[in-house]
Amino acid sequence: MISLSKTPLPPPLLASPRGTPFERAVWSLTHQIPAGSFSTYALLATYLKSSPRAVGNALRRNPFAPEVPCHRVVATGGTLGGFKGKIARRDGEGITLAEKRALLRKEGVRFDPVSGRVLGTPFAGFI
Predict the structure, then answer these.
(1) Residues marked as catalytic
(2) For a FRET experiment, which of 18, 30, 70, 92 has its CA 20 to 30 Å from that of 64?
(3) Quick check: 70 and 30 in contact, CB under 8 A?
(4) Quick check: 126 and 53 in contact, CB under 8 A?
(5) pLDDT at position 69, please?
């Protein structure tokens, strides 16, 4: 796992003791994803030498949204994954996922009109 001392901390993390060291590392990486971009649970997990599920669980517990923009993290295939601790219903949608999609669209992220998947290359420029 990366060291938090090497990862830039967003302002809410500087002033708060909340979160485990792993959660804080996930939140710090998520804070680096620029508006209009997205990344994936798997890319964050690879960077942290962890698992996508662990990253998702850390994002589910993110108390700093929207400044730590967990809505910018999607599943590897371009599906939305979960949001606010919820996963999609059997039909693939849910109110929280509609909110996640709306936040991403507002920032300029594009979606395939047929499949509903996120279009573009995921952000991976973490420092």
Answers:
(1) 70
(2) 92
(3) yes
(4) no
(5) 94
- CA dihedral for 119, 125, 36, 54, sign (positive or negative): positive
Q: Which two tokens stand for residue 106?
A: 């507002």
Closest CA to 44 of 101, 8, 2, 3: 2
Q: Give pLDDT tens digits for 70-125.
A: 999 999 999 988 766 555 445 444 557 888 899 999 999 999 999 999 999 999 99
Helix (H) or strand (E) holding 59: helix 52-60
**Residue ranges of domains in the chain, CATH in brackets:** 4-106 (1.10.10.10)
* Residue 31 token pair: 């804070």
The pTM assigned to this predicted structure is 0.84
For 80-119, the DSSP string reads ---BTTB---TTS--HHHHHHHHHHHHTT--B-TTT--B-
